[in-house]
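Could you please consider the sequence and fold appended to this message?
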Amino acid sequence: MEGIILKALSGFYYVDGGDGALTACRGRGKFRHQKLIPLVGDRVRFTPLGEGAGILDEILPRKNQFQRPAVANIDQLVVIASGAVPVTDPFLIDRVVSIAEGRDCEPVICINKCDLDAAEELYQTYRKAGFLTLRVSAETGEGIPELAAAIAGKVSAFTGNSGVGKSSILNALEPEFRLQVGEVSDKLGRGRHTTRHVELFRLSSGAIVADTPGFSSFDTEGMELRRPEELQYTFREFAPYLDQCRFTGCAHVKEKGCAVLAAVKAGEIAPSRHASYVRLYEQAKEVPEWERKEKEQ
């Protein structure tokens, strides 16, 4: 049978074969010999053994994979942000969006707590950059139907800085989840992490969603492996200008005749987005090539 791994715990992989029942599978020894670790989100072939048990036989080719959190085959990365406490730093959004863009994964920007703050600048920044950008309120239900439509029929991972309401939004989408929701600490201005492991949930609409850890742990290793010259392709609004720079190999940081910088000055590219690009570019430059090659092996 074929199915998808929805949860991995204590050496068992819980596979949904499409009939609504989960089969607790052990992986075959060949995975260990091949140093291949099954991931939540993997499409697999498995053999049911009865009484809810089974064996994983094969991991089908992956569309993409992430190291932290350990998930595979994500169609969309829904980035939850907030203009209310805790206010989201645009750099955190841009770092995760850059990772998604480099992994064939469509970013969706979802601004929660719009009943408290509409976050107009954030909304306009990402809408203008070409991303599906939604405003929702897990508290009042505003925008939840639009979000439900955006994730229907797809595998989506939800991420965002702690306290912005990832679990609350999942509860609003499907109240039966009753996921643990952390209270935002008034003293610290940020939430306590409430998600202990990555798990995919199948909604009644057919969508499959994951609640993931916050930005602090989201695939920073993968970000470090990115070469500086590759980053320009993960900022989609740069695309129309990349071939218009005066000099070949332009870094788009402070070079003369840079078409990207001209677009920033003209208001075609948001200054916050370009500032995030420069920050990521400088970070990538600090990683020695030998260290990058060592991590790729």
